[in-house]
Amino acid sequence: MSVVVSLAERRSAAAPAEPLLAIEDLHVAIGSPGRAAPVIEGMNLEIRRSEIVALVGESGSGKSLTALSATRLLPRAAEITRGRIRFDGADVLAMGPRALDGLRGNRIGMIFQQPQAMLDPTCRVGDQVAESLRQHRGLSREAAGARVVELFREVGIPAPEARVRDFPYAFSGGMAQRVMIAAALSADPDLLIADEPTTALDVTVQAQILRLLHEQCRRRRMSLLLISHDLGIVAALADRVAVMYAGRVIEEGPARAILSAPRHPYTRALIECSLLKRDAGGRLVALPGSAISARELSHGCRFQPRCAIAAQSPHNHDCCSNEPALACCHGSHKARCWAVKPESEEVQQ
Amino acid sequence: MSPQPAAAFLDARDMVKTYPAPGWLTRGRRVHSVDHVSLSIAKGEVLGLVGESGCGKSTVARLLVRMDRADSGLIRIGGTEIGGLAGADLQALRRKVQLVFQDPFGALDPRMRLGESLEAPLRAHGIGDRGQRQAIVLDMLREVGLDQSFYDRLPRECSGGQLQRVVIARALILKPELLVCDEPTSALDASLRSQVLNLLIDLKHRFGLTLLMISHDLRVVRELCDRIAVMYLGEIVELAPAAELFANPRHPYTRALIAASMLDNPDLSAAGAGLRGEPPSPLNPPSGCRFHGRCPQAEALCARSRPAFDPTAAHAARCHFA
Amino acid sequence: MALEAALPDAALPSRSRGTARRPRFARPHWTLVAGALLLVLVAVVLCLGPTLAPYDPTVQALIRRLKPPSEAHWLGTDHLGRDVLSRLLVGGRFAVVIAAVTLTLSVVLGTLIGVISARKGGLVDEIAMRSVDLLISFPEVVVAIFLVALLGPGYGTLILALTIVGWTPFARLARGLAIEINAKPYIRAAEILGCSRRFIILRHIIPNAIGPISAMAFLRFGHKMITVGGLSYIGLGIQPPHADWAAMMAEAQPYIERAPLLVVCPGLAIFLTALSVTWIGQGLSQTGSKR
Hints:
heterotrimer, B: alpha/beta, 2 domains, four-stranded antiparallel sheet, disordered N terminus, C: MetI-like fold
């Protein structure tokens, strides 16, 4: 319920039509210049102000690389070969090192799967968060220290005055993730990128962290890009969901539409897997085979080899030979599948 | 799901395992990782063991496969006390009990071809000659749904799901009777989880396995297990048949875990609402009921006295109000 | 039906074939290529040296002593009138062979002691590591002088002297690596599956540790050659009149102003040989760490 209310709230307060982050036709390749292999091919993604977008896909689908592209933090072997990335109107790909520092420090915050690995074990936790405040905000030592305590309280760390002086080993996974969130929030970013923020955490803590992220986004009118392999977990939180497969978005739309009426067979399978649904024979619904990456398929729908309907579909020939476009199926709900009929022929539920 | 339990195949009583505390400040003290845990599994049964990280569930796995020795307590597997086994007797135990690891990337030697990894246990137990061993390995690869080409592959040439199949194949290659699975799917994508769980169910039937499924995810154990034990801070706090546990959870911790794991519920504010904070350090377990600090129903009694627990009851809960 | 659903990967063998976690970039570091080329050159010279040499390197001709380079003697002659080029062509064998033999022995000994020490722990580990501490504080040259005094000069003595001290850094490295590898889940798996200690050490730990160890062996090769040279320089290595690069430098020292080439040429030869092997070691560790 609360998700829906917040969605409406945000829409009404929605700022200009210009999206906060716009990724257009992004191509990323990995490898040395001579033998680069594509991992992202023609990725499009928009995040509007104070919107929560979930980017979902299996490992190797390119979801993390998409996020890293947005801040130009790709590993050295990966390279953006084509595309445009605009953040708040500015061209990210044309930015110099100083502009990028400003972008990463002040406008976009990031948190990752392994919070403990992101903390320096020899340095007090509070000092690590204060450091970025002093650098990017120019706060004095005392002011930064006070602000860190405030931030720790905000992200729900008990006894923040004492905890800022602790070293990282004294923090559990969930608490360390809260510290990372506090650090990311310290700069008051417009966009927070959370790459599998709860995958390494216990179930009870997962819910707490997701709730915290949701709250903070709502309060700060901050956008959130939530990356995960588990559609069921993130979709509850998101306004919009984009599902990635082998380097491309294969379905996107409002979270509720995708959860209740997924159009792409891959999305459907992901939801059923996530919920551990059983089929008629009492077996857990499973996606056959393993994910292929963008570099392995040159023609046809990328999901075709694993697709249950491609085999029996009247579109079978298309499935094997041509890749479908991301077609509208209802409003802003789009899917990349030959079996998806356009809106007009659709019987609305 | 499976026939009614006959005699217990695994019978563990009052297992205790402590580790030296890390850090110089706490030197000399010991962490009670597993504190008087009793478990029994009937032949052919699937028992689930759930709890948050640090609750001691992986330590239980280590004790049952004799990776570690318990400080005290009795563990009988197929009628044999395993604590003091050595030499040939220990090798015999290895053929009865095996472990499936959590992280398939870590559980296989990155420089060893998968075929050799699978063959190593056969060699260690003197089973067959070269040709026979290779045939057994190829058979087992087929059982877990992999083709012959995997025999010559290195781990880095496979995906996580494929490697987890290899890890399962290796655990089964000695034809064990009890398979302990320590979070077999938590390192995998959601899309691969069902594949691996289906495979485990199939193999259980084909090989007549007895399974201990360890997981932090109640959804996973609910789908697979006959009975479920919930662990908190080194103790079992609730033990019941799976359906009964979900229909009628008696311990507040179980209730909180169930609420938290139903994340598909779009109303996020309800999920995990019952549970505050995180488990306390096992170095200083709370007095009385160990859960009282996080329990929404705790009363003064809970801080003072430790609730009793009868592991032989059909539905047991370690709570004063159960 | 049940089985088919459990066999999804078999259904897609060709497709999953290339599903490597990461593409394999086996492109070697440039130092590896450069080092290997240089080493091949050095090896050719060392092997064919005696046939390439225009003169007998030990024949003296005092009337021609300390001649500058000429048509007949490309690099001139030394203080006893011997052809410098000929001596250079045959003079490397000794140091290179000694360095290679001692390093091989040191690697084998050090790796075994280090790995066993790490696996056993406790008293064995303590004794092994304290011996390393003790031996590592002895300079190689002092040990060599002592042993030469005791056993007389010769190949055997030198190899013994250099190996006694030489295995210690390898033992330390191997122990560190083995402790790290020993903590991996696949070692636990091997133990639970009942694999023998021997199997775990030989098939799991050593193959996973050998990369950094061999890189270190190559990196130390140059250092070893120079030590051998140093020993020859103070007269503990090869005995005159046989040619050796370091001994040549030592003998030429009094004439360094009149005939600098006498020192520069063997010095350069030592430098290039050491450099080639060091580059290979550097390249190996760079290529290895990229993976």
